[in-house]
User: Fold this.
Amino acid sequence: MWYPFAVRILVDYRPALRERTGVGEYVHEMAKAQAGLQPPDEITLFSNSWKDRPAPALASEMGRSVRIIDVRIPVRGLVWSWNRLEWPAVEWFAGAHDVVHSQSPLLIPTRHAAQVVTIHDLDFLRNPDQASAEIRRDYPVLARSHASRADAVIVSSRYAATQVTNELRLDPSRVHLCPPGRPEWADEVRLRRRDRTGRHILFIGTLNARKNVGTLLDAYTLLRAQVADAPPLVLAGSRTAHSSGWEARCQQAPLLGHVSLTGYVDLARRIELYENASMLVLPSYDEGFGLPVLEAMACGVPVIVSSRGSLPEVAGAAATPIDPDDAVGFATAMRAMLDPAAAAEAAERGIRQAAPFTWRTCAEAVRRAYQSAIEVHAHRR
Assistant:
């Protein structure tokens, strides 16, 4: 049941402002699906930056029920003030709302609204040295306090729900499972793939330590030793300080000329990569969800995943999880997927696994989380 009046919701859109990686894709598609729910709510997308502006097409893509607040204030200054001083209240910029939804573990200050945070994973607690400066400075110190004060906490997988509940010591009733949806363009990609042979082995993700690209390179080296004409490997994702060793390795034999690093890829390029992929390999040490796995399955791309984090949950029967340090196991799985019959069977399993994941279902779950947050907030007051 939803309230008989339009609920005023402010959604932090900043993760989708520039490079729309997993968190940015989640907030963008979630907000778009929310805008299509009935009865409609009053949704505000909040963004702030000194130099980056929301895409010109954002307003038309979201629809008339969505308002965009774009504040020209340096990101670092406002983030520091919000995280450390919990000031100023977001009402200064966007007016009154019933729910304020942060896309990080830290609250957005508000005078009267119910507060919601999204926590996709807890890597910032386990590996703070690998995080960006802002996350390294604030998240490990503040996340427990902020999450405990949030009226609702949104997670994207059962694995993340268990981690957040246990490690942040939260009441399970305030933790809400809202998995993402398969992309709307996946069906078209799947149709185009019917007439194509996979041209490359694909990895998609930011090239940080937990993505475990080193084991993938080990496995690919073994594969090429066994199959001389194995497809090239494409590493698609933003470079980081940690990735320099992997980049240097790809410039030397036996990987030289067989591995390409694309950097960040936009949506059009990502679709093209899925269209021509023989398989997706994600050997991560930890994932809060693993959106590329869902995207690949929906596109009919076979997936190979590690046995850590949420990946076994997301892939389900579509893949047999492999220990992230088992390069031989990954090489064996990749070689198996080069067989057309095995790949077709794996693709069908993936399509079935991805089918229940929709952005509308995600938006409905988020709406229930908002309703719970409003009720908890009223009780606390």
